[in-house]
Amino acid sequence: MKKEKVTLIKPKKGEDRGSKDTKMISAILSLILGIILLTNSTKAVIIVFYMIGGVFLLIGLYYLIRYFKMKKDMHIEDSSLFVLGTSALFIGIVILILSGALETFLRFIIGIILIFNGLRNFILSIQMRNYVTLVIAIVLIGMGLYTILAENIVLQIVGALFIVSSITDFVSLFLENKK
């Protein structure tokens, strides 16, 4: 058996312009998404539900169009396509109509989970006499109440993290350009 020589292609020193452009676009999109989540977490969740409802509507229309086309062209009735199409359309319409209620329900569930974890940590911190865990438990309970009563604090924290991430990306790009 003959051995073949393998040569590795070494990357060029420095980055190409496309990579820097990609990092810049990613940082800008991350900043925009972070600001949206930080300032309008409720509307962001509703928009996501609208998008999910729209996807279900498109899927439903696709299956119904396939059903009617198959029925017309091949004279075959595939009832599974009809059922899938009408079911997806129905689910999409329900999601679009109830997007506000679904956002409230999701916020309530997240708040309950935060309060439950906070109470569990509170009990453990009292038993263990750990004051750091006690502070974390109180913060979790407060976050849960805030999430239920006002806004989705979890999404606001994610938004703040996106903003911090984009700022660090901008700083690293600035420092790379200085070199």
Overall morphology: extended
Please report the distance between the alpha carbons of the first and last residues. 49 Å
What can be said about the biggest beta sheet? Answer: none
Tally of structural domains: 2
Mean pLDDT: 85
Q: How much β-strand is present in the residues?
A: under 5%
Order of helices and strands: HHHHHH
Q: What's the β-strand tally? A: 0
Number of helices: 6
What integer value in Å does the Rg equal? 26 Å
Question: What are the segments in which pLDDT stays under 50 over at least 5 consecutive residues?
Answer: none
Explain briefly what this protein structure is.
By secondary structure, the protein is mainly alpha-helical.
Write a structural description.
By secondary structure, the protein is an all-alpha fold. It has two domains: 60 residues; 68 residues. It is built from six helices and no strands.
Please tag this protein with its features.
single chain, 179 residues, mainly alpha, 6 helices, 0% strand
Layout of secondary structure:
Blueprint: H1 17-39, H2 41-74, H3 79-97, H4 99-128, H5 131-149, H6 153-178
